[in-house]
From TrEMBL:
It holds the Pfam family HRDC. Residues 1-29, 425-449 are annotated as: Disordered. Residues 1-11, 432-449 have a biased composition (Pro residues). The keyword Transcription does not apply. Residues 244-324 form the HRDC domain. The keyword Hydrolase applies. Its EC number is 3.1.13.5. This is Ribonuclease D. It comes from Nocardioides perillae. Keywords: Hydrolase.
């Protein structure tokens, strides 16, 4: 064996040569999360559901639960897979499409606490199949209360538990049957660590003195329902390019027609025709099929197939009387847009500016997003029409009552009331800024001395 040559001696660095910093090794990547018990089979028979119910009922502690929808593929927001995990019961994957209801599973869970991530996304579709929690713990909301800058499940699991999750199937079409095995593994992993994540986040909440706040927030979520969007057609992307109320009526008619078609076919509306096609047709205002299909930008899978319905919608909009044309701005029962306050009510604008500044500082002190401290709409509503009294104690009581009526939780009322009262009183006391005097125009020289 040949001897290993020795390394040549390195010259000492001279005074004008700074020594090189040693290479810093990169932090090792967090280990990939894997299934502890292997991939469970999908429950899609009555016998399988009975077995799952028996296992869940015999388990102990809270139940981790998740649901997969087909967002971006289907019109409905129904659940196409329900995942559960409980100590002593293991993980179960249930196909809700195979059953009229999952109420037997609800009975098996009983009053056990649910653990969800981003509960508002899953509660409506779980309620559709008969699953409603008696109490819950939302790991995403807990992360927000603790001030984590990113609260996605994968990020929280890596930050809090030091493990890495795969997320490559998050946008899959979960209405597919049979579901591919890699998708099922992804779905099972979503509940694999929720029990452990809950314990870690609960300990942090208790240490931060926020466990009671979290309890109030979780209780508030129990009554959550999917929001009903009024005049949802106004969210059409690119609608700002359409001019006039008649053009808005065309957008509305096309949007509502597309929505009906999408509901009939159970496909996401954008797969019928995209928003850009609605805007293009509303701007061009074609009155027959050939003109519509010749319109630049009017395309999509349903453009030609439903051409007669698009033309009918455009004609309906064209024939509407002026009194039935949509307003340029959406109707609202709340205060005007914040940018309009200075013109409409300068004192209210000062109240809002002062309160926003203090709310930002409060959020920083509490270590959480300012919108988590108090819903911005609640703040605007109280500041636009505050109580009439200016006696501090009475004003505080009235502001607190307003916030409670709007839906603020007790901890939020406690944190925000003094801040709002201070903004109201200070805005009344501070004089409105004096407008700059308009300078007199310089007279034109006459040429006379």
């Amino acid at each position: 064996m040949s001897p290993v040559p020795s390394e040549p001696a390195q010259p000492e660095p001279t005074e004008d040569q700074a020594p090189q910093a040693p290479d810093v090794a990169e932090a090792p990547e967090a280990p990939l999360l894997t299934l502890r018990d292997g991939l469970p089979r999908v429950v899609d028979t009555d016998a399988g559901l009975a077995e799952a119910c028996a296992a869940v009922a015999a388990g102990t502690g809270p139940v981790a639960i998740d649901a997969e929808r087909a967002s971006g593929y289907r019109y409905s927001a129904r659940a196409y897979l329900v995942q559960l995990r409980r100590e002593g019961a293991g993980t179960w994957l249930v196909d809700p499409i195979a059953f009229d209801s999952l109420e037997p599973l609800a009975t098996a869970i009983g009053d056990a606490e649910w653990i969800l991530h981003a509960a508002t996304q899953d509660l409506p579709c779980l309620a559709e199949v008969g699953l409603r929690p008696a109490s819950l713990f939302d790991t995403e909301l807990a992360g927000r209360l603790l001030g984590y800058p990113r609260v996605g499940l994968g990020t929280l699991v890596e930050t809090v538990l030091g493990r890495r999750m795969r997320k490559e199937h998050s946008a899959a079409d979960w209405s597919t049957r049979p579901l591919p095995e890699p998708w099922l593994e992804y779905a099972a992993l979503d509940v694999e660590v929720l029990l452990e994540l809950r314990e870690a986040l609960l300990a942090e909440l208790e240490q931060a003195g926020k466990s009671e706040w979290a309890r109030q927030e979780f209780a508030h979520l129990l009554d959550h329902q999917a929001p009903v969007r009024h005049e949802a057609w106004r969210r059409t992307s690119g609608m700002h390019k359409v001019r006039g109320r008649r053009g808005l009526a065309a957008v509305r008619a096309l949007w509502e027609t597309r929505d009906r078609i999408a509901a009939e076919r159970d496909v996401t509306p954008g797969r019928v025709i995209p928003d850009s096609a609605i805007v293009a047709a509303a701007r061009a205002d074609p009155r027959d099929r050939s003109a519509l299909l010749a319109t630049s930008g009017f395309h999509g899978r349903g453009a030609e197939r439903y051409a007669h319905r698009w033309v009918a919608a455009l004609r309906e909009a064209a024939d509407l009387p002026e009194s039935e044309l949509p307003a340029r701005s959406p109707r609202s029962d709340g205060p005007p847009m914040a940018r309009a306050w200075a013109e409409k009510d300068p004192v209210a604008a000062r109240r809002l500016a002062l309160a926003r500044e203090e709310m930002t500082a409060l959020g920083e002190r509490l270590g959480m997003p300012v919108e988590q401290v108090l819903t911005p709409d609640y703040l605007r509503r109280v500041l636009w029409t505050p109580p009439a009294t200016r006696e501090p104690a009475a004003l505080a009581d009235a502001v607190a009552a307003q916030l409670r009526d709007l839906g603020a939780r007790p901890w939020q009322v406690e944190q925000a009331t003094a801040l709002v009262v201070d903004a109201v009183l200070r805005a009344d006391a501070e004089p409105a800024p004096t407008p700059e005097p308009t300078p007199e125009p310089t007279p034109e020289p006459t040429g006379e001395e």
